[in-house]
Amino acid sequence: MSYKKDSRIVMTLDAGGTNFVFSAVQAEQEIIDPITLSAKGENLEVVLKTIIHGFKEVEAKLLHQPVAISFAFPGPADYENGIIGDLQNLPFFRGGVALGPMLTDQFNIPAFINNDGDLFAFGEAIAGLLPEVNQRLQEVGNPRRFKNLFGVTFGTGFGGGIVSRDGILLGDNSAGGEINRMRNRTFKNWDAEESVSIRGITREYANNTGLNMGSCPDPKEIFEIGMGKKKGNKKAARLAFEAFATDAADALANAVTLIDSLVVIGGGLSGAHPLFMTKLVEEMNHPFDTLSGHPLERLEVKAYNLEDPDQATEFLTPSSIEIPIPFSEKKAIYDPNKKIGVGISRLGTSKAVSIGAYALALNRLDQK
After folding, report:
1. CA distances (Å), origin 221, targets 214, 248, 273
2. Dist. CA 346–CA 132, nearest whole Å
């Protein structure tokens, strides 16, 4: 699926718990500088007016009229009908808010809404990590090609989205890919998001230093402390990201067991990957214990850290062999090595969401 030569313009939004990032996309490229507005507000009316204002600012910068609005918004939601449900990170949304119909009424064009994790994954599948990996496989003469992608975002929350063979897997209740609801490995009665999030990093650093949450540095500062770029408790910072990686890896391993795909990581915390990526992939591959005493591989596939040059090379290297066809002189090609790669967003989270939203809108318009 490609829209690189399509002249239609779609206005987009990446809606997080902290900021709203507005943009416009044409031919799979952002055509304006993104506009960022605060997602905070005194009440629902203020937040909704902020969303309308953001799209009006985008519209004013365009040389041609947009054909649709398409954007990411957290769930739970009835995405097919544009109705937003009760949100944890945007507390004014309660009881069902007809956000899609409101924008269609305001701008007189179709408005499409989907989960931010889904659109992030879709954008990376169209123009990010997925095509890059397949291009690199082609360049080294490896016949293997990937068609599935699981996208996760590490930030205010822990989001996920599944792309399977050119389409988003929504599920029957618009609830596909909700990895945040997996059980927390460390804290058994919590969901994974309590650890795989900004608050999880901050909590772990506070626990390891004796600071209270209010006086803790933010995760960006904790990362800089862990990298030795800023003064602070370096050991505590590294332990915070190790705990984060351990719980993230457990959730990802559970997801990959079902999906069998590449994994792409985005969100505000993805920039800290030098402190968590090695641990995350190691934990994904860490075997189970068994009663027999023999370890059992955690995954049926092996996960590779695509940000590590040596692991990336091993991942890309062809490993197919020829095997005999029984009762024949002919040979069959067989690859005994099952591999997936885990990498960081190639587009940047907001851009990936915008491109995913754009492609989804044109796909929907073309189906009408």
Report:
1. 14, 20, 14
2. 9
Give the whole-angstrom CA distance, residue 143 versus residue 100: 43
Find out whether 136 and 306 touch, Cβ atoms under 8 Å. Answer: no
Of 171, 148, 194, the residue nearest 76 (C-alpha): 171
Query: Is 223 part of any domain?
Result: yes
Maximum pairwise Cα distance, the chain: 76
- How many angstroms separate the CA atoms of 174 and 345, rounded? 24
- Cα–Cα distances (Å) from 271 to 137, 153, 223, 344, in that order, read 25, 11, 9, 8
List, for residues 18-70, the tens digit of each pLDDT value.
Answer: 889 999 999 988 999 999 999 888 899 999 999 999 999 999 999 999 999 99
Q: What is the dihedral of CA 223, 272, 239, 231, to 10 degrees?
A: -10
64: Cβ contacts below 8 Å, ≥ 6 apart: 9
In-domain check, residue 366: no
Residues near 97 by beta carbon (within 8 Å), at least 6 away in sequence: 44, 48, 83, 84
Contact 15, 71 (CB under 8 A): yes
Phi, psi of 147 (to 5 degrees): -125, -5
Joined tokens for residue 48: 């909704």
pLDDT digits (tens, 9 = 90+) for 136-178: 999 999 999 999 999 999 998 899 999 998 789 888 887 889 8
Write down the residue that tokens 């062809």 correspond to. 318
Q: For residue 94, what are the domain limits?
A: 9-115
Number of H helices, E strands in the chain: 10, 17
Same domain, 106 and 209: no
Q: Residue 281 has which token pair?
A: 């992939």
Read off the CATH number of the domain in which 39 is found: 3.30.420.40
State how many domains the chain has.
Answer: 2
Residue 208 contacts by C-beta under 8 Å, 6 or more apart in sequence?
Answer: 233, 235, 236, 239, 240
Q: Are 288 and 299 contacting, i.e. CB atoms less than 8 angstroms apart?
A: no
| Omega before residue 336 within 30° of 0, cis | no
Report CA 309 to chain centroid distance, whole Å. Answer: 22
Q: Whose CA is closest to 264, among 192, 340, 198, 337? A: 340
Is pTM beyond 0.70? Reply is yes
